[in-house]
Amino acid sequence: VKPGFHQLCFNSPYLDHLCAMIRETATLFPEADGIFLDIINQPGCCCRWCLDDMRSAGVNPADADERAVFAKQVSLEYYRATAEAAQHQDAAMPVFHNSGHIDVGNTEILEHFSHLELESLPTGGWGYDHFPLSAAYARKLGLDFLGMTGKFHTTWGEFGGFKHPNALRYECAAMLANGSKCSVGDQLHPSGELDESTYAIIGQAYAEVEAKEPWCRGAVSAANVAILSVTAVNPALGREHEADIGAARLLLESHIPFDLLDLSMDFNDYKVLILPDAVRLSAELSKRLQGFLDQGGKLILSGESGLNPECDGFAIDLPVVHTGVSPYQPDYLLPVQELQPDCLTTPFVMYLPSQRVKAHGGQSLGAVIDPYFNREGDHFSSHQHTPYQPEASGFDGGVMTENILYFSHPVFSIYRTYGAVILKAFVQKAVTGFLGKTQQVVTNLPSQGRVTLMQQPAENQTILHLLYANTILRGGAVQMSGGNIRNTSPVEVIEELNPLHDIQVTLRHPRPVSQVLLAPQNTPLAFTQNGSEITLRLDTLCCHQMVVLKH
To answer: Where, residue-wise, is CATH 2.60.40.1180 in the chain?
Structure first.
């Protein structure tokens, strides 16, 4: 017998019992700050109640797809019933249902939420790049939202565990920079006494938050680039997908502000849309994207993105001949000279198969070079894969036109999975060249620097957030029970907050700027303005700096 959590089905009498407890709590504590319902998940259950109800409804319990549809209906009833119980006395009682991640595109449940809380403990397995992606979607949903981190070194239930105070300072700053309010999780000791050290550490971070709040209230994203989420287009691919994560990481490390969209959102709010790796186009989506292009928008596509649902041709006008997917994994790429990473003039490995395309117009991104053969049972080569042939395959690594940039490899999934900096250098050169003057921020921040661009409409000002922290992996080879780290993964931590110096920023902004201030210091910062380009320089950046552009 192992200790841990056990899941109860919401289609059982348990839901009635749960709702009774919620009503009792709301009645006993009418002045409560809200009702927080945790670990909400309803898988394709086959308990006796589900089996009876599925058969009565004509659902085949042996069919996984039909079970999933039934489970979703059970989930919707859970949300309705529990929210009603929480608000049975006070319709304004805040209620939130936590599932560890806000599902992109699953908007039908949001009527049962008063607000959103983005669970994202960087040291608990989420990592420091999870929250920016989650917030990039949440801020588009029209609900108030909080970031949810923890005071722990690892994750929930770690009594006596503390992250470094600098880590919490950075995490709270990142929440503000992404348009979020802040919350820091703790777990109460059975004695009922609050831990003095915990709240001293939280207090240090919150003192900085309090000083920064005037420049964060009512802020909305000003990004002109958006990712159309793979999981929003095809929910069957799961709650999170490596293509979305890889695209977000490349944009974060390239200091390109972005939002994350589902299909309900307006594409025309942006100048550039990224469809990462696996966004096949229905007739309806193809029509929407063509309208976006006709209005002057630009598309970045990769891998299968842009292909029709059958994956046998492009569903959008792209000057290539497509002949299917490469039989080789991996193959290699030799970019054209202007897109080659600075340190290379030879082909580099691409890890995952490419789409076989030949450019017939536009600019080729480079030549795909095949290996001699795949490393498999009948053919063998060394420790990993077979070297590349001396001659190019005749297929292109992608194409760039005036309004479409296409990579023939699933470059975002490759970057998420392999983290190859050579690949990143190639993609960055292609993307920044394609964006041109559309790129909102150009800076000499290192790759671990983060940039967001927010607007405060009521104050008629734009806020540029600059963040930097050096994260590092520590530890490993530990087994935990009851928490989120259950394997031998190391923990991503922040310890020192080392200052950076001589930070150069060029900001492309369509509105004239009358004054630039550093906040919360409220001190003027020198700048030059040439048309829509504002150039400025910061002597020092330590953790987080807000730059206020007054219009």
So the answer is: 442-550
Structure tokens at 120: 């994202």
Q: Are 270 and 295 in contact (CB under 8 A)?
A: no
User: What CA–CA distance (Å, rounded) separates 211 from 452?
Assistant: 19
Architecture in CATH for domain 442-550: Sandwich (2.60)
- 391 Cβ contact list (under 8 Å, min separation 6): 369
pLDDT for 377 equals 80
Q: What is the CATH number of domain 14-218?
A: 3.20.20.80
Domain 223-439 has CATH 3.40.50.880: yes
Rounded to two decimals, what is the model's pTM?
A: 0.95
Cβ atoms 207, 172 nearer than 8 A: no
Give the C-alpha separation, 290 to 57, whole Å.
41
CA distances from 257 to 152, 253, 353, 439, 520 (A): 29, 10, 29, 9, 22
**pLDDT tens for each residue of 457-500:** 999 999 999 999 999 998 876 565 555 555 557 889 999 999 99
Helix, strand, coil percentages in the chain from 3-state DSSP, rounded to 5: 30, 25, 45
